[in-house]
Amino acid sequence: MQVEQVKKLTRQMKIEKVFHGLTILCSSLVLVIMLLMFFQLIYNSRLSIQEFGINFIFSSTWNPATHEYGALASIYGTVISTLIALIIAVPMGIIIALFLVEISHPFLSKVVGNAIELLAAIPSIIYGMWGLFVFSPFLADYIQPFLIDHLGDKPLIGRLFQGAPMGIGMLSAGLILALMILPFITAVTRDVFRMVPSVIKESSYGMGSTTWEVTRKITIPYGIKGVVGACFIGLGRALGETMAVTFVIGNSNIISPSLMDPAASIASTLANEFGEASEPIYLHSLMQLGLILLIMTFIIQLLAQLWVGRIKKSMGAGL
Amino acid sequence: MIKSNYNTRKRKFIDFTVKILSSLAAFIGIFFLLWILFTVFQRGFHALNTDFFTKLPTPPGLGGGGVINAITGTTIITLMATVIGVPIGVMTGVYLSEYGNKSKFGSIVRFTINLTIGVPSIVVGLFVYALIVIPTGSFSAWAGAIAQAIIMLPVVARTSEDMLNLVPNELREAALAIGMPKWLTILKIVFKSSKSGIITGVLLAVARVSGETAPLLFTVMNSQFWMKSLNEPIANLTVTIYNYAMSPFDDWRQIAWGASFLITMVVLLLNIIARIIVRETK
C-alpha cells in the first residue's frame, strides 16, 4: 500500500517536472523567435549591406532596373505619414476621451466607447479598401482643391500643398493612418482619464471650477504620462501599418515636398515589390528595408515599455 | 465686482466652447468610422450571392464566380495558426503567472512579449519567408499558419498571464494544502476559474489574425484553385481582397468588396462574442 503511494507520488513529481519544463520551453520560444527574427533579416540582407553599406539609409535612389537601392524615400514616407497621423489623431483622441469621461451622458459614453473599441478591431485592409475607393476620390474632389487653392500660395507651408488633386498620396495615407490609430488612442486615453480619483475632481468642482478647468488643471496633468504612453504605442502601430497605407499612398519612391504627391513607405514598398524581386540583390535590399522597419519599431516599443513600466504603478493597468 | 462677472462669463464661454469642440470631435470620429462600416455593408452585401459562397474564382470579365477556395483557405490557415499558437501562448502565460512570476527570466520573457506584440505583421511575414519559404523553396499554407501563429503567440501569452493573475491565491493554496500537485492545481483549479478570460483572449487573437493580410503576402501567396496540400500556396480571403481590389476589373472588385464584408462580419462577431463572455463572467 505504502509502496504504491510512493510510486504515485514520484510519478506526480515527474509529471510536475515535465509540466514545469514545458512552460519554460514555451517561454523560451518567445525569446528564440525574437533573436531569430533579427538574425534572419540581417542574414538575408547581407548582399545589400555589403554592396551599399551605410549609404543605404541615406540614398534616395530606388531603381530596380539599374540595381541601385536606397531606403531614404521609404523611410521619409514612413516617418511623414506617421507624423500626419499623430498630429491629427492625438489631439482628437484626447478630446474624444474627454467627451467620453467628462461631458457625455454615461449611457452615450458607454455606447460610443464600445463602438470605438469595436472599430479598433476592423482589419487594416478594410481601411485600405475604403481609403482607395471612397475616401481618396472624396479627398480629390472636395478637400485637396480647397487646400491647394487656399494654402498652396502661402509662404513656407505652401510647398506642402502644391500639385494636382489626385486623391492618393502622402496626405491620404496620413489621414487613413490617423483614422486607424484614433480608436486606439481614444480608448487608452479614456481609461487613463478614468483613473483620476474622483475625490480630486470633485473638490475642484466644489470650488466652482468649470469642466474645462478641471480637465486642464486636474485630469490632463494627472494622466499626461499615460497619454504619452498611448501615443508611443499608437506611433509603433502607425509605423508598421501595411495594407491601409499600400492602398492609398501611391507607391512612388520619390521624395516630394508636397503632401499631395504619391509617396511610398517601407511597408508599402515591401508589399508592392516583393513579388517582383527576382534578383538576389533586389530581394536583399527589400529584406534590409524590413530590417530597418523592425529596428525602428523595436526602438519605439523599447522606449514605450520603459516609459510604461515606470509609470505603471501610478497609472494602473490598461496600458 | 463687474470684473469678476466678466471673468465668470469668459470662463463659462471657454468651457462651453470646449464642450462643443469635444462633442464635435466625438461626432466626427464616429461619423468617419460609421462611414467605413456603411461602405463595407453597402458594397459588400451587394456582392454576396450563392455563387460567392459556392464557386471557384473565374477569370476577369466572365462574371459570376466565387471565393469558396479562399474561404476554406483562410479558415484552414487560421485554425492551424490557432492550434500552433494558442497552446504555446497559454503555456507561456502559465509560466509567467505560476512559476516565473518574479524571476529574472520571467521579466525578460514578459518584456520580450511586449516588444513582439509591437513588431509589424509585415516584418513577421518577411521573417517567416526567410525562415521557411527560402529553405523549402515554395510558398505554403504551413508558412502562413506559422506567421499567423507568431502574431497570435504574444497576444495570447499576455492575456493568459493577466487572466491567471486574477485567480485568487487562496484557491491555489487550498488545492496545494490537500496534496494536489502543482500541475494538477493549474490544470484543474486555476484554468477552470480563469477559463472565460483565456477563451476571450484566444477569440480576440483569432479575430486579429483572421483579418491580417501582410504576413500572408510573403508566405502563402494566393491561388485560383482548390488546395491540394498544405505544402503549396493556397487561396485565402485577405490576399484575394488585396489582389482583386488592385485589379482594374469591375467584377473582381465586386468580389473584393464581398470578401471585405465577410471578413469584417467575422471579426466584429468574434469581438462581440468575446465581450459578451467577459460581461457574463463579471
Describe this structure in words.
The complex is a heterodimer of chains A (319) and B (282). The N and C termini of chain A lie far apart (54 Å). Chain A has helices spanning 2-43, 46-52, 55-58, 72-103, 106-119, 124-151, 170-194, 198-206, 211-240, 243-248, 266-273, 280-315; strands at residues 62-63, 68-69. Chain A has 319 residues and is mostly helical. Chain A contains 12 helices and 2 strands; from the N terminus they run αααββααααααααα. In chain A, α4 packs across α11 (266-273) and α8 runs antiparallel to α9 (211-240). In chain A, 47% of the residues are buried. With 282 residues, chain B is mainly α. Helices cover 78% and strands 0% of the residues of chain B. Chain B is built from 12 helices and no strands. In chain B, α6 (141-165) packs antiparallel against α9 (195-210), α7 runs antiparallel to α8 (182-193) and α11 (237-246) runs antiparallel to α12. Classes of the chains: A mainly alpha (319), B mainly alpha (282). Chains A and B meet through α1, α4, α5, α6 and α7 of A and α1, α3, α4, α5 and α6 of B.
Q: How are the elements arranged and paired?
A:
The complex is a heterodimer of chains A (319) and B (282).
Chain A: H1 2-43, H2 46-52, H3 55-58, E1 62-63, E2 68-69, H4 72-103, H5 106-119, H6 124-151, H7 170-194, H8 198-206, H9 211-240, H10 243-248, H11 266-273, H12 280-315
Antiparallel strand pairs in A: 1-2
Chain B: H1 2-47, H2 50-54, H3 68-99, H4 104-117, H5 121-136, H6 141-165, H7 169-177, H8 182-193, H9 195-210, H10 214-217, H11 237-246, H12 250-281
Helix pairs in contact in B: 1-12, 3-6, 3-9, 4-6, 5-6, 6-9, 7-8, 9-12, 11-12
- Taking the alpha carbons of the first and last residues of chain B, their distance comes to 54 Å
CATH topology of the largest domain in chain B: MetI-like fold
Number of domains of chain A: 2
Strand order of the largest sheet of chain A: 1-2
Kindly name the structural category of chain B: mainly alpha
The low-confidence runs of chain A, each spanning 5 or more residues with pLDDT under 50, are none
- Report the sheet-strand fraction of chain B: under 5%
Number of domains of chain B: 2
